[in-house]
Each structure stands twice: as C-alpha cells, then as structure tokens.
Amino acid sequence: MYTHYMKFMAQDTPVIIIFDSGLGGTSILKEIISLNLSQQLIYVADNLNLPYGLQTKDFIENRVCEIFSSLNQHYSIEAAVIACNTATAYAANALRDKFNFPIVAMEPGIKPAISLTKNNKIGILATEGTIKSSRFISLVDRFTSDQHKICIIPGVGLVEEIENQSTSNKKLDAILLPIINELLQEEVDTLVLGCTHYPLIKNKLQKLLPDIQIVDTTEAVLKVLAGYIDQINPQCTKQDTKAILLMISKNEETYLSKIKKLTGFSKIEQVKFVK
User: Fold this and answer.
1) Boundaries of CATH 3.40.50.1860 in the chain?
2) Does domain 110-216 have CATH number 3.40.50.11240?
C-alpha cells in the first residue's frame, strides 16, 4: 500500500508542503497543481486528529510543529502552505519562529468581504477552534468597524461530513439548514468561508444562497505562494506537475481515491507518513 519516499526523489529535491488536518486542503492543492511548478508537491493530512476545530491550542501547535520538524529532517522544504485555518490560528507563528522556509498561512477573507458587501452585513462560517482563537478575534477587530454587522457561525459537524464526501446527503442538509436560516434572517449579503473544507461545498452553498456573495481566500494564497517561489528561485521554469506525494497519519483505504477525485489529478502516490 505504502511506498517509501526515497524511491521517488532525492533528499535535496526542492519540496512544497501543503498541510491540512484532512481533505480541506485539496481546495488549495487543486489550484497549486494548475501553477505547474517544478518543485515536488507533498500533501500532508493529519486525518488521525481531525477535526482540528475541536482540538486545543496547545495540542495543535505541538502536533503541527512536530510534523514539520520531522518533514524538515527528510526533505528540502522550499515553502509550506498551511491549508487549514485552525492550524494557522494556533500554529503559524510557532512554525515561522522555528523554520526558515516561507510559511503561507490561511486567513478568513474578512478584508475582501468588507470591500464586497453592500449592506455591511457579513457572515463568517468557521470551525469552533478558529472562532475561539485570538488570531481570529484580532482579525475581525482589525478589519471591521461599528458600521459592520458580523454574523459568526460555527460550522459544527461540517468538516466531518465533508470528509465523508457527503455533498448531497440528508445529514449534511440538516447541518446546513440552521446555518442557511441564520444567514437569511440576519440579511447577510456576503459570506466568508473560514475553513478550507468549506470551499468543497461552495457550489452547494451558492445554490442555497443565490443572492449572497461567497468569499474564500484560495486565490490570495496562490498569489503569495507564487511570489515566494519567484523570490526563492527566479529562474524556476514551469513544467507539467510531477506525481504528488500523499501522507496521511491514519491509513484509510479510500483517502487516496478521494483526493484524486477532489483535485481531478490522477498522478498521486501515497507514501509513509513521516514521524
């Protein structure tokens, strides 16, 4: 089932890590694939401990730093994308203090939402962990004012259902119903997706909320990553994306096929999780 990473690449091969607790980061990975970078892409999912939104700050910070310390011993990391809002909220600063390679982190798109809203009523859908974090609270305070009405909704149970690829079942609909009703009741005209899992149901949300603008930060993350790559290796040439390596902390037989389906990319090889 697993193949050791040394069969695929030399240890000095430039690597870009895309990290998430589960499948949510594939919404970022799919777009990174389209950049046709020459670097080796490695998607790391700590699915043993998802959802991160229910974990403590100390656990997430220690766990993410532990994973990256191990990855850094095995690979020549050129940049890393923390494709998880909760991991960003609790571990991004620690990672930047610990490592020299660029860390591209996820932030809820509150600033673009402010520029898009017409009635100053903005909804933010995020995990409980993200909502409780000081980083998130500071972000809301920084970009909003008294004229803005912010409706913050925890997406309880959403990550688990999205992980199950339940995009059309009754359980997912039951979770979404009170969320949709609250957004409509509050007359929100702009919705921020504050978790990388949520863009995986963006089309479904847009059908349920046809008059609400939906904001995610995938495009902004790509611009930041591309900027770092240009600085690190300005002579880097684009080429067809080589096989992506997948690491998961909990072995699930269907995980590889799920990621292939979500990214539309078939050249993905599962390798041993670095511990």
Assistant:
1) 5-106+219-270, 110-216
2) no
Return the amino acid letter for 110. I
Contact 89, 126 (CB under 8 A): no
Q: Could you read off the pLDDT of 61-115 as tens digits, one per residue?
A: 999 999 999 999 999 999 999 999 999 999 999 999 999 999 999 988 999 999 9
Give the active site residue among 65, 151, 195, 236: 195
84 is known as an active-site residue: yes
CATH label, 5-106+219-270, candidates 3.90.1150.30, 3.10.20.30, 3.10.310.10, 3.40.50.1860: 3.40.50.1860
Question: 65, 84, 151, 236: which one is catalytic?
Answer: 84
Spans of the chain below 70 pLDDT: 1-11, 166-168, 232-240
Alpha-carbon span 275 to 271, nearest angstrom = 12
* Unique residue bearing structure tokens 């990256």: 68
